Amino acid sequence: MFQKIGSDVISRILDAVGFGALNLDRLYRVNKIAGKDEEAYITELNESCGGSAANTIIGLARLGLATGFLGKVASDREGDLLLENLKKEGVDLDGVIQSHHGRSGTVQGFVDTEGERALYVDPGVNDEITSQEIDLEYLSNTRLIHLTSFVGKTIQIQKELLDSIPSNVTVSTDPGMIYAQKGIKTMKKLLNRTDILLLNQKELELMTPHINQEHEKIKSLLDFGIKVIVVKQGEKGCMVTDGDESYFMEALNVECQDTTGAGDAFNSGFLFGYLRGKSIEKSAIIGNFVASCCVKEPGATSGLPSLSEIISVYSGEIK
Ligand SMILES: Nc1ncnc2c1ncn2[C@@H]1O[C@H](COP(=O)(O)OP(=O)(O)OP(=O)(O)O)[C@@H](O)[C@H]1O
Ligand SMILES: [Mg+2]
């Protein structure tokens, strides 16, 4: 879809733009996770493109939506790989800044023979985004902005930005552990402008530690003006509510191989349903389905389905 802006500038309207950290994930298999003054060895190394918002946006792109991304990488090998990967998935890159200085974000993960892991995040230039670098018009020409966390100060830019985007742009937020740990006070500004909040049970607890009852926890978040809340519950499924109606939707019974990115995949399916005008109940069904496709395959994006895969399972409900 195209829209005329001003006199003669033709600009594309996107369905969804992601705004979150872009990281190259390096997963090392090790004989053991070394403690202080200890030495261990690496048996295998796998690299993959990561970042929670990027995973969700790739999921939406696979489902045929027009997607874009706002983020920052450096002019290094990692940055080039991250850009190539998004481009290969058909994600618009006009909002991605490639800095001439610094390092691209990376996550070094160490996994031992028992599957225990230790993660080290190097945010690199993810933490150096300035408001001057952001093209507000890009963010005004999308139906939805999906926000995920940054480890450093870019949360301030996300907050500032929300003041400037038009009210008809839907904002979805997945706080992850990083933002949930900050607590409700730090998150207030983001929550005030969030329409759809997607979080897991642990994050719900972290954000509402002084409230005992589940429905009171949810209510305290709805009071920020949030329209829809989804609480993801791993292999059990999810709970979704708009304040009037609440549903618990069971996860699909599939052979789970790797849950990396399951939450991000769920978000793709849910937001796809929402953008297609489906009810919260149907959107949650699609979320569970997309997440089930993700956990059947290794990594965060290799199992993400195409639109035809969804239609073959839920034909009547999706069209
Ligand atoms: N073993 C499983 N079998 C089927 N579906 C699963 C399984 N584990 C997770 N899911 C699906 O993935 C969704 C999201 O998982 P989860 O609740 O772990 O989210 P999350 O904690 O945000 O994940 P992430 O660690 O990716 O951020 C669940 O709501 C469910 O639909
Ligand atoms: Mg999550």
TrEMBL record:
GO biological process: phosphate-containing compound metabolic process
Keyword Kinase: yes
GO MF term list: kinase activity
UniProt-listed Gene3D superfamilies: 3.40.1190.20
InterPro entries associated with the record: Carboh/pur_kinase_PfkB_CS, PfkB_dom, Ribo/fructo_kinase, Ribokinase-like
Family (UniProt): Belongs to the carbohydrate kinase PfkB family.
Protein name: Ribokinase
Organism: Methanobacterium subterraneum
Phylogenetic placement of the source organism: Archaea, Methanobacteriati, Methanobacteriota, Methanomada group, Methanobacteria
